[in-house]
Amino acid sequence: MxxxxxxxxxxxxxxxxxxxxxxTYSSKWEQMPNGRMGSVKRNIKTVGxxxxxxxxxxxxxxxxxxxxxxxxxxxxxTRQTSASRQGGHQLIFTPRxxxxxxxxxxxxxxxxxxxDPMLQALQQMAELEKExxxxxxxxxxxxx
Length: 144
Fold this sequence. Notes:
Blueprint lengths: L10 E6 L2 E13 L5 E14 L6 E6 H6 L6 E7 L7 E7 L10 E2 L9 H27 L1
Parallel strand pairs: 4-7
Antiparallel strand pairs: 1-2, 2-3, 3-4, 4-5, 5-6
């Protein structure tokens, strides 16, 4: 039996400026400062974007992500509000009719996320947070 939609990694969406960025992540359970266990996103990578801040519309994936998941080339992917979940969203996979495979879905290198100052600031914050987290781990190890 063939699958009707591609199997994708965990995705989440971040509104920044005039775009909504699509990111992948892996989840890890860690102990929080309050002593309870909590899920933390790790290995975050921007893999595409929606060209508006509402978070709804066609998803434009980066060429690297399309190379990793070539079955996406056969679909136009759209994020819409979900009729079944109040306040939720869903991805709609519509088969392409152009048969070209990549027409219009990949973000060109000229339109890469590095050109967006808001994304640069978010990435710098994530890097600083990662450094801070590793410093906390080092301090914790020294205390033990």
